[in-house]
Amino acid sequence: ESQFAANWENQYPFTWRTMTSAYELSIPVNSLGKLLCACVSGSLLYLMLGKRSDKALVILALAWSIGPFLFWGFKFGNSARHLMAGTFPFAIVLAASLQKMTRCSRRRWVLLTAILITNYFSSYRHPDTVSPSSRLVGAARVIAVSRMLKVQDARRQLETLPSRTVLRGSADSPYAILVAISDAESVLFDDGCVTLSFRGGTRSVRLCHIYEPEQIEQMKMGGWYVWEF
């Protein structure tokens, strides 16, 4: 377990460079949705200017959420699912601010419905599951088609892969792994490598997640072919 933790820490180190990456910064925003993120930010500020009980709610929400957001915010390889537990208090904050802004329950429900519908359509459909689209139903269809095409492409590429290949990690890597294993006549796991035996010969495929450009260059310099998915 200690070796696994050490390898994991080496693979996903804490780094300030995530703060300069537009993609990494988009993950916490897209975990809520662009409009909802703006509404929650406004609600936090609004309640901080209110009564002592309102300030206490804001402090509680931030104390609940700050852990996962800070921990994953400084690591490459962050994902919206990592932040799910930290976003729950924001729903309470938004509800509390709507409660204070208007006394009419019908208006609150209309406003909340308008926020949620607008937030749903605040981004376009795409297959990225790390920084996901707010249009969940449409994005699910795009993801299904995209992964089907990737599996078909993986089967074609598998026949011509060099003997030493690194599979660069992504959300679709498990599909490529399953294709590789299911198409092989025999599979041998040894020291982090998967040796797949095919009719045309034997090739070694190291299955790992690589995010850092330096790691990719080191593997290339070591004679490995990087199979990016």
Explained architecture:
The chain is α/β, with parallel strands linked by helices and 229 residues long. Helices cover 59% and strands 12% of the residues. The chain has nine helices and five strands; from the N terminus they run H-H-H-H-H-H-H-E-H-E-E-E-H-E. The protein has a five-stranded mixed sheet with strand order 2-3-4-1-5, with helices on both faces. The longest helix has 23 residues.
- Count the DSSP helices: 9
Proportion of residues in β-strands: 5-15%
Tell me the quaternary state.
single chain
Number of strands: 5
List keywords for this structure.
229 residues; alpha/beta; five-stranded mixed sheet; 9 helices; 12% strand
How are the SSEs placed, and which strands pair?
Blueprint lengths: L1 H10 L10 H11 L1 H15 L3 H22 L10 H18 L3 H16 L15 H23 L5 E5 L4 H11 L2 E5 L2 E6 L2 E7 L5 H9 L3 E4 L1
Parallel strand pairs: 1-4, 1-5
Antiparallel strand pairs: 2-3, 3-4
Concise description?
With 229 residues, this protein is α/β, with parallel strands linked by helices. The chain contains nine helices and five strands, in the order αααααααβαβββαβ. β2 (186-190) and β3 (193-198) form a beta hairpin.
